[in-house]
Amino acid sequence: MQPIIGIAGNHLNKATDTFQGNEVTYTPQGFVQAVKQAGGLPLVFPILEPSYAAAFISRVDKLLLAGGQDISPQLYQQDPHPKLQETNLNRDLFEQALIKEAIKQKKPIFSVCRGTQLVNVVLGGTLYQDLSLYPNWAVKHEQQPTVPTFATHEVKVSANSLLGSLLPESYFVNSYHHQAIKDLAPSLKAIAIANDGIIEAVESKNPEEKIFGVQWHPELTHQVNPLDQSLFDYFVNEL
């Protein structure tokens, strides 16, 4: 049976941006195409109250968390730093509930960029609200104006990890984040690291909690890079 993949969506509203005057629920098309190419059936979730999370998760086989806004530091008991960018607390709280429900219902989770940061926070970790707060920052993690189909920095992948079976030990990725994992959640382990020490991928220590996430954007490169598509293939068909 074709796996149904729930993709947590985002929201354009009148306070930020609109589509011809309309508020819009959306997800980047790369996620839809990559899931479809892997043989999954993509289903985009709108942002609703956290009480809806259990019903959404019960109707899908797996959960995919996408990129987007900064995560509200309220979730890890910090005040907002002056360099914090746009947040959406409603999205944070809904996706937090989705993560908890997916774990409770034993549904696999694949997270990308912001999604990986949120998984870390929900499981008890913290973030650098801006990379300028990281004392060893030495790699450009926001690659603009370089287009996302060009990988710009190296990550070192742990051979003894889920990613180690999919990617080479030295792998170049695209990069679009100004926040990063600071304190890693106790139930997660780092499985890819940038050359300045920033965590670039994680997986669950508990094999019964099928969670893995990356900090880069394979949905923007999957059509030109089969290795990035392989992350979606593994998630949809094996995780």
TrEMBL record:
Q: Which GO terms describe its cellular component?
A: cytosol
Superkingdom of the source? Answer: Bacteria
Gene Ontology biological-process entries = polyamine catabolic process
InterPro entries named in the record = Class_I_gatase-like, Peptidase_C26, PuuD-like
PROSITE patterns listed in its UniProt record: GATASE_TYPE_1
Per UniProt, which keywords does this protein have? Hydrolase
Gene Ontology MF annotations: gamma-glutamyl-gamma-aminobutyrate hydrolase activity
Q: Which Pfam families match?
A: Peptidase_C26
- Where are its TM segments located? none
**What is the designated name of this protein?**
Gamma-glutamyl-gamma-aminobutyrate hydrolase
